[in-house]
Specification:
The structure is a single chain. By secondary structure, the chain is of the alpha+beta class. It has helices spanning 36-42, 45-53, 107-110, 185-194, 213-223, 232-235, 257-260; strands at residues 5-8, 12-16, 57-62, 66-73, 76-81, 93-98, 102-104, 113-117, 121-127, 130-136, 140-147, 150-154, 161-165, 169-173, 206-207, 210-211, 240-241, 252-256, 264-272, 275-278, 287-290, 300-305. A six-stranded antiparallel β-sheet has the order 17-22-18-19-20-21. Strand 15 (206-207) and strand 16 (210-211) form a beta hairpin. Helix 4 crosses helix 5 (213-223).
Length: 308
């Protein structure tokens, strides 16, 4: 049975465990447009920790992401996100999104060339002088026309058009950029990751407004044209196993409970010279650390490479 296709029509759609998961403080994140900055700024540390401890948030999806409708319940839609692979559901990462944050995706628009944001954040303009929505890295929209320093794009859920600055995007065919044919892909992953140093951690985060550890690894690989699973516990099962002495920038380092013998719970990106860049935990921001003195080094259980 085919599922209806829809598209994320807000800057960042937070994907909830169920329609009852959001708290009153989460209201800004449930609207269209989603007030992502006020939502993040309005949460205390305890509020942020509760996203994880309360099993409230599953993942996120950025503007233009295609989703499949699994179930509908009032003002909520249960979706699967095909671009976020998971063993939990072969169709895609599951969770609930407010209906108002989704729009119907037509096959015609889905097949068009797309403008994908490669700046950390970029404004979508209603006209070249009228900002509309602040978009995250890797958001993408169907291209209508190229116009000097602007790219004219289709706005989801509307008959109108919008504009993105050409310097903020790259043009891709389909839903994902191709694998580069030149250069060191691992270094490309690392160089892009370094541009997010000091961005605060967000449980379930898959946007330039906040990443969790595996969302960060997933997104940096996607930038390089590589699709990897969404969660660290799945990421560790694919790619090529790499020995310590063979590590190169862009490789993934996995950490497991019970000094590496238990369940995988964290992932970082090897940065060369015995260092790692990662999105560590709710009380911290994306950082580069020395592996030799990293507090979880005894839990390092596996290294994997998805490129080369």
């Amino acid at each position: 049975m085919s599922m209806e296709k829809m598209i994320v029509a807000v800057s960042v759609a937070t994907v909830w465990s169920n329609p009852q998961s959001p708290r009153s403080i989460d209201e800004p994140a449930l609207q269209n447009p989603a007030a992502i900055r006020p939502w993040l700024e309005g949460m205390t540390l305890e509020d942020r920790l509760d996203l994880y401890r309360g099993s409230r948030v599953q993942t996120q999806a950025v503007y233009g992401t295609s989703v499949l409708v699994v179930e509908e319940q009032g003002d909520w839609v249960k979706v699967a996100i095909p671009q976020q692979g998971t063993r939990r559901d072969a169709v895609g990462y599951p969770g609930w999104i407010p209906r108002c944050q989704l729009a119907t995706e037509t096959s015609e628009l889905a097949s068009q060339r797309r403008a994908e944001v490669i700046a950390n954040k970029a404004w979508l303009y209603l006209t070249p002088s009228e900002p509309l929505i602040e978009l995250s890295f890797l958001s993408s929209l169907p291209v209508i026309e190229l116009a000097d320093s602007w790219v004219m794009v289709h706005i989801p859920g509307a008959d109108g058009i919008g504009y993105l600055k050409a310097e903020d995007v790259r043009l891709i065919n389909g839903s994902m950029a191709p694998l580069p044919t030149e250069g060191h892909i691992g270094q490309m992953i690392l160089d892009r990751a370094m541009q997010f140093v000091d961005l605060p951690y967000l449980w379930g985060g898959v946007s330039a407004f906040g990443y969790d550890c595996s969302g960060f690894a997933h997104s940096m690989h996607r930038y390089a044209g590589i699709s990897i699973p969404r969660d660290a516990s799945d990421q560790v099962n694919y790619g090529t196993a790499i020995e310590k002495e063979e590590l190169e920038p862009g490789d993934l380092l996995f950490f497991a409970f019970e000094e590496g013998k238990g369940a995988v719970h964290h992932v970082g990106i090897y940065a060369g010279n015995g260092q790692m860049i990662h999105s560590p935990e709710t009380i911290k921001s994306i950082e580069v650390v020395e592996l030799s003195s990293y507090k979880l080094i005894q839990e390092h259980c596996m290294s994997r490479r998805y490129w080369g």
